[in-house]
Amino acid sequence: MFNSWLRKGSIILAAFVLLFSLAACGTESKETPTTEGAKEQEGSSMELSGEINIDGSSTVFPISQAVAEEFMALYNDVNVTVNLSGSSNGFKALIAGEIEIADASRQIKDKEVDALKAEGKEAVEMPVAFDGITVVINPENDWATEMTVDELKQIWEGGSTVTKWSDVRAEWPNEPIKLYGPGPASGTFEYFTGAINGTKNESRKDYTPSEDDNVLVTGVSRDKYAMGYFGFSYYVENQNKLAAVSIKVDESAVAVAPSVETIKDGTYKPLSRPIYIYPVKSSLSQPEIQEFLKYYMSEEGQALAEEVGYVALPAEMYEENLSMLP
Amino acid sequence: MKQLDAERQMRRRKRKNTIFHALFLSSTLFGVIALGMLLIQILSDGLGWLNWEFLTNNASRKAEKSGIKAAIAGTLWMMSITAPLSFIIGVSTAIYLEEYAKKNWFNRFIQTNIANLAGVPSIVYGLLGLTIFVRVFGFGKSVLAGSLTMTLLILPIIIVASQEAIKAIPVTQRNASFALGANRWQTIIRVVLPSALPGIMTGSILSFSRAVGETAPLIVVGAVAYITTLPSGVFDKFTVMPIQIYTWANLPQEEFHHVAAAGIIVLLFMLLSMNAIAIFLRNKYQKKN
Q1: Residues of B with CB below 8 A from A85's CB?
Q2: What are the residue boundaries of the PBP domain, all occurrences included (chain A) (predicted)?
Q3: What is the DSSP string of A51-109?
Q4: N or C: which end of chain A has fewer CB atoms below 10 A?
């Protein structure tokens, strides 16, 4: 009896040892190529080393990731990590001193500035790109290609009574309007409600919300009578499935469609918004962070922002960012 | 007349049986078909993107250069802490509660709380881990903090599963052991545990699978979405496969949805192999006993 249990026990133990030594082997063997790769390129890299930790908005994440990827190809000994726990959590991590740079799709709030001050810190605001929130309709929708801000407000404001397209303009189809938009935790939601409805975070609630913009894309692309809004990059990638609404600031204004040009020169109003990074001021003296920010604001950095679907800022805004470096 | 009634009743009963047979069969098929459809869709989306580069590259802004290396390493690191720790603590707790604990109000209170903990949403564990392990204990956003959070998350499930397995051992077996002069410890280690082991292993490995697939608590605890270095110790930063997949699936570019599908295939492969080990171990020990 005892022997048989001992045997069973040892088999299980062996199985576990095998499992975890396999796991350990797996990690070790995979580690080797990186160090080799790093050695190969050592000659080309300058003498910068250290760690840069970024966290915050998932909207800014693609730009920070792209910049980090290219920056690390230049400087092998610098490790950059990027996370996307959301603008607010990014600021919290900045306050807790866990990261050096916060990504944000909105400006820092007063109480976040105060919390930083309480820790003896200060954050520097650097806009890095424009995002044009795009109002989209189904490509088969041939009536609502131009809308005024007022009409959008009628549709989206809290307690809106619009249920059919004909409720907005009498000549539009007498069909129910199906609405898709980001959920209330999103920075896009906050900006859209602020710019269109006049009050931040106030919106009608009877629409289909999703934190995953791809769900919104699919929803609007499958329904002729649907309408939704989300970041410009999701429209650019799905232009064959969606149409963008041109927006008129008021009745007499010219309708402007979202495009790289109109977002950049500011004529796409009022839904074009800057997105930011907030490096903590005390870290600006660290050479690797300084160099990283310089790269972020360089022409390569701007090209990367455009590559991942955002609109680069006018050159003078990048220069202003750089002027804040010591 | 009476016979006619009986016949009618018989027909009715048979019909009822047929209806429920069909109902239960369709319930079973529902799950199987859903899994089949999921597999077909994922395989057709991702199989073309699955190759050696995908397993050995880091994440990238370019879909064709993207890989899952750091995430695989992170998941293995996390599990190499979470699995033994949660197994040892979980099984010990189950043994205490089933074999040693007296049936008083205090132990009933513990028991109820463990059952309730098993139903707490995973994000709550994430917030708990962030407060306790990351900030109070000062582990930072590290492999260790993530692993301990995951240990907490799956502990209640392991405890409950192990308790059920231990409960299933007939009391006569224990009595036989006591009758031969064995004390409680000897009975547990030589009689109860060997018989309960298959059930304990099945429960544990299924909950390890849950830990491998969790995203939300690790995002909160600070596993990062983009990292190019592999952890070399428990205080290093890390990422795990579900976070990497979630990040890809959220990107606007269509190609990244294929990359995400390829990541899901790797994750599914890992989960299915773990379940296969569970089944293998169970069958092996069931036969012996």
Answers
A1: 219-220, 222
A2: 49-300
A3: EEEEEE-TTTHHHHHHHHHHHHHH-TTEEEEE--S-HHHHHHHHHTTS-SEEEESSPPP
A4: C
Integer Cα distance of B17 and B21 in angstroms: 6
Cβ-defined contact of B69 to A30 (cutoff 8 Å) = yes
Q: Which residue type is seen at B239?
A: T
Contact B261/B46 with Cβ under 8 angstroms?
yes
Residue A23 to residue B80, Cβ atoms within 8 A: yes
Measured at the CA of B202, the angle between CA B198 and CA B204, to 5 degrees, comes to 115
Residue B22: pLDDT over 60 = yes
- pLDDT tens-digit map of A75-122: 989 999 999 888 888 999 899 888 999 999 888 999 999 999 999 999
B18 min Cα distance to partner chain A (Å): 40
Asked whether the beta carbons of residue B135 and residue A96 sit closer than 8 angstroms, the reply is yes
Distance CA B110, CA B97 (A): 9
State which fold the B53-288 domain adopts. Answer: MetI-like fold (1.10.3720)
* Residue where a domain stops, chosen among A270, A285, A304: A270
User: A250, A270, A290: which is the final residue of a domain?
Assistant: A270
High-pLDDT (> 90) share of chain A, %:
62
Shared domain for A119 and A33, answered yes or no, is: yes
Amino acid making up residue B90: G
Q: How far apart are CA B55 and CA A238, in angstroms?
A: 29
Report the residue of chain B nearest A66, measured CA to CA: B61
Task: Say yes or no: A230 and A178 in one domain.
Answer: yes
Q: Do A31 and B79 touch (CB under 8 A)?
A: no
Q: Tell whether the model's pLDDT for residue A25 goes beyond 80.
A: no
Could A12 and B197 be called an inter-chain contact, meaning their C-beta atoms sit closer than 8 Å?
yes
Are B257 and A213 within 8 A, CB to CB?
no
CATH (domain of A139) = 3.40.190.10
* Contact (CB, 8 A) for A156 and A227: no
Chain B residues in contact with A233 by the CB 8 A cut-off are 252
Same domain, A150 and A263: yes
* Containing structural domain, residue A222: 134-270
**What is the distance in angstroms between the Cα of A219 and the nearest Cα belonging to chain B?**
14
pLDDT at B1: 61
Residue A25, min C-alpha distance to chain B (Å)? 10
The pLDDT value given to residue A117: 95
Q: What is the pLDDT of residue A10?
A: 53
Nearest CA in chain B to A217: B252
Picking from A1, A72, A231, the nearest residue to B190 by CB comes out as A1
**Residue spans per domain, chain B:** 2-43, 53-288
Residues of B in contact with A16 (CB under 8 A): 84
Checking ipTM against 0.95, whether it exceeds it is no
> What is the H or E stretch that residue A229 is in?
strand A226-230
Asked if A98 and A150 sit in the same domain, the reply is no
Number of domains chain A is built from: 2
Distance from CA of A237 to the nearest CA of B (A): 6
